[in-house]
Design goal:
This protein folds into three domains: 114 residues, DNA Polymerase III, subunit A, domain 2 (DNA Polymerase III, Chain A, domain 2, Roll); 118 residues, DNA Polymerase III, subunit A, domain 2 (DNA Polymerase III, Chain A, domain 2); 112 residues, Roll (DNA Polymerase III, Chain A, domain 2), CATH 3.10.150.10. The protein is built from seven helices and 25 strands.
């Protein structure tokens, strides 16, 4: 069976679904991409059993067929073909895929599609329409704060909550919290915990091209995202998410207004002398309307001074420079508020007005 397609389209589809191909697995079939051709449409599917990504492209073909092709080899060959026009031919008898483009010929041994895992997911018609830009933004501004330690279970996920016209995403690990809110249209109610790494990978394939909107469908154990010619199914966490609001909504009496870029650059320089061994510690001495930032080790010390507007008592506090840089790097506003109670209570970073975002970082006890 022969079929024809464009390299540009196929390359993009392979790139999209490859986010679901497991890095390490004992299953050869999961290292592959399921290729299904039907009615002039090629559907590529990959899964690691926790996420499924499908991507469709148009092909010239009068027949229907399916097979599984090794993902890495397929991706490597297609990306290096000399011309945009590709002719492929699949032999069911030999389970071999032939690829032709310009003067290049390649053959790949494939697998039977019957061995590819089938996910039985019953969709419904209750979906939420969201702007692509909003989905990318809310993931970028929170997912980094979720735990990367699998022993923390549900905290390796982000909470997606939609109610009263507000979409909120929350990321929590044992030392920090990130929340971000976006106003949306429609009267929806959603509360699901989605694996942070998976949703971060998905955000990379949500491009500015194509349609402006994305649809979100929430099922009992999955969420389904559809955009352009792609469909993503992600398994959600069972169980109750941590009561982060109890911790996050305890503001202190000390408020420090500071220019975000000045603070970020100072912390970036001071962090040159920090390390994992000392929890990336930098010291903040906030007196009058000045922040003095210090970092030191056996190789030397760095001091930074920043003018601020302070309301409340003077304070000395130790904070993790990496966590601070993670937060400041995703904030768009020129100025922020650092809210604190004392040297052993959390530091909360928030906007000058409103509740668009809140970031909490636990302090490091100073000697």
């Amino acid at each position: 069976m022969k079929f024809y397609c464009r390299k540009k389209d196929l390359n993009k589809a392979i790139s999209n679904v490859s986010h679901a191909v497991p890095i390490r697995t004992t299953s050869k079939i999961l290292e592959g991409i399921l290729v299904e051709i039907k009615d002039g449409l090629m559907t590529l599917t990959a899964t690691d059993t926790t996420i499924i990504i499908e991507s469709d492209i148009s092909v010239q073909s009068n027949e229907n067929i399916s097979f599984v092709v090794p993902a890495r080899l397929f991706s490597g060959i297609i990306s290096k073909l000399p011309e945009d026009e590709i002719m492929m031919e699949y032999s069911t008898e030999k389970e071999k895929l032939g690829i032709r483009s310009g003067g290049t010929k390649a053959d790949i041994i494939c697998f039977n599609s019957d061995d590819f895992p089938k996910m039985k997911i019953k969709e419904n018609e209750n979906f939420i329409t969201l702007k692509k830009e909003d989905v990318r933004k809310i993931i970028k501004k929170t997912a980094f704060s979720a735990s990367s330690d699998e022993f923390n279970g549900i905290l390796t996920g982000v909470l997606l909550k939609i109610e009263n016209g507000i979409m909120k995403m929350v990321g929590v690990d044992p030392f920090r919290i990130a929340t971000y809110n976006i106003e949306i249209e429609g009267d929806y109610e959603v509360s699901e915990v989605i694996p942070a790494k998976l949703i971060s990978d998905v955000s990379k394939i949500i491009s500015d091209e194509g349609e402006e909107y994305i649809t979100l469908e929430v099922l009992s154990k999955n969420v389904i995202l559809k955009f352009d010619n792609n469909k993503v199914v992600i398994n959600t966490f069972a169980g109750k998410y941590i009561d982060y609001e109890r911790i996050l909504n305890k503001d202190g009496d000390i408020n420090v207004r500071v220019k975000k870029d000045d603070l970020l650059m100072s912390i970036d320089r001071a962090s040159l002398l920090t390390s994992l061994q000392n929890n990336n510690l930098i010291r903040f001495n906030i007196e009058n309307n000045m922040i003095v930032i210090n970092s030191l080790n056996e190789e030397g010390n760095i001091e930074e001074k920043i003018e601020v507007i302070k309301d409340g008592e003077d304070i000395q506090i130790g904070l993790n420079s990496k966590y601070l840089k993670d937060v400041l790097s995703v904030i768009d506003e020129e100025e922020i508020i650092m809210n604190m109670k004392d040297s052993i209570s959390p530091c909360i970073i928030k906007p000058l007005k409103g509740e668009k975002y809140k970031y909490l970082i636990l302090p490091i006890r100073l000697n």
